[in-house]
Design a protein that fits this description.
Elements: E1 9-15, H1 22-36, E2 40-46, H2 53-63, E3 67-71, H3 78-88, E4 93-96, H4 108-116, E5 121-126, H5 133-151, E6 163-166, H6 167-172, H7 183-189, E7 194-199, H8 214-232, H9 236-263, H10 269-272, H11 274-307, H12 329-339
Parallel strand pairs: 1-2, 1-4, 2-3, 5-7
Antiparallel strand pairs: 4-6, 5-6
Helix pairs in contact: 5-8, 9-11
The protein binds uridine-5'-diphosphate and magnesium ion.
């Protein structure tokens, strides 16, 4: 049964057809967590497996009070499965890892130690990878490099799920598509501090990987959208506007020159400057399009932030003597509970 009170550590594991991996994974995690001597929960998310994964989970759940077993209605993908687990997690620190034994639970304490140094996110770095070179390592190398340049977060390995987070950071982040590997970049927007530790990368023993080369293309598209979201989601017109202005200005100048030639110099525009006329029209039209897309974007952004009351900032801490502080009510509660010495075990 799930403990009522919040726990210290939550381990989140997404599972898709991992029936053979669940029992050994469960015993390894449990062994490690017992050694930590703190309260913990293990959240197994069955992402619509078609094998017996959930049956095995249910058996483990019956025996062990630290387990939460969540079963999604269908296969929603790793990102959604992780998010489902994060939403359920009550731990102060949340650790996510793959359910295929490619991540060694023995390394969990290293992540926790690093978080306790004060970082908000600790990401694993597979220094020596075991995956195929051409289809997996090369694309991921390029993606990691681009990603760190674009996002300004200096990580070597965005791809791995083996990560630890403070709960308030991860639960605030909305995840879509395949975005789970960009959490550090998204979180760094709100000022989260990110650290990296080397981890082992063991080959998969049972079952098969769910991904291949096609993932690279999707990751690339995600990269573009992340870059856009990080830099322009509150001001889309700043992205489309310059393109629009340049287009319309160039087009207008060209147009004026052509009108001058026609009216003053009496030149035959269609015959002599046909392509230029075409270019002028094209520039003006696309320019207006870009400006309109930018303005539409502004409206969408406003609807997005206002309808959901999404803050355009993130608060780390507030010191205030007001009874109820805006923005960071949890902070006060947390401080109080520490003061009262409320949490043992
Ligand atoms: N996974 C999932 N839903 C999916 C695909 C994968 O929950 O639709 C889980 C899978 O069970 C594993 C983790 O995500 O625990 C990583 O998947 P996989 O090993 O296939 O990816 P790779 O290690 O090859 O990147
Ligand atoms: Mg794997």
């Amino acid at each position: 049964m799930k403990a009522e009170a919040n726990v210290k550590y939550s381990i989140v594991v997404p599972l898709y057809n991992e029936v053979d991996n669940v029992p050994p994974l469960y015993s390894k995690i449990t062994e490690v967590m017992r050694r930590m001597r703190e309260s913990y929960e293990i959240i197994f998310v069955d992402d619509g497996s078609t094998d017996e994964t959930f049956k095995v989970l249910a058996e483990i759940y019956d025996k062990d009070g630290h387990i939460v077993a969540l079963r999604l209605r269908r296969n929603f993908g790793q990102t959604a499965a992780l998010k489902a687990g994060f939403d359920l997690a009550t731990g102060e620190i949340i650790i996510s890892l793959d359910g295929d034994l490619q991540h060694d639970p023995e390394e969990i304490p290293l992540f926790i130690a690093k978080i306790e140094e004060g970082y908000d996110i600790v990401s694993g770095w597979r220094q020596e990878r075991t995956d195929a070179w051409l289809t997996r390592r090369l694309p991921s190398c390029i993606a990691n490099w681009t990603m760190s340049k674009l996002s300004g977060v200096e990580l070597h390995d965005f791809g791995t799920t083996f990560k630890a987070y403070r709960r308030e950071i991860i639960q605030d982040i909305q995840l879509y598509g395949e975005l789970h590997r960009f959490i550090p970049a998204l979180a760094s927007w709100s000022g989260a501090t990110v650290a990296e530790i080397p981890i082992k990368d063991s080959p998969r023993q049972n079952g098969k990987s769910n991904y291949g080369l096609s993932r690279t293309i999707r990751v690339l598209l995600d990269l573009i959208s992340i870059k856009f979201l990080l830099d322009y989601s509150t001001k889309p017109l700043h992205f489309f506007g310059p393109l629009g202005l340049i287009g319309t200005s160039l087009g207008t100048i060209l147009g004026v020159v052509l009108v001058f030639k026609k009216l003053i110099l009496g030149e035959e525009i269609m015959l002599q400057h046909g392509p230029l006329l075409f270019l002028a029209t094209l520039l003006i039209l696309t320019g207006i399009q870009f400006l309109s897309i930018g303005l539409m974007g502004e409206m969408v952004a406003r609807t997005y932030y206002e309808s959901q009351k999404k803050p355009i900032y993130a608060v780390r801490e507030i010191k205030s003597r007001r009874k109820k502080s805006v923005g960071a009510p949890e902070q006060t509660v947390k401080d109080l509970s520490i003061g009262a010495g409320a949490s043992f075990q």
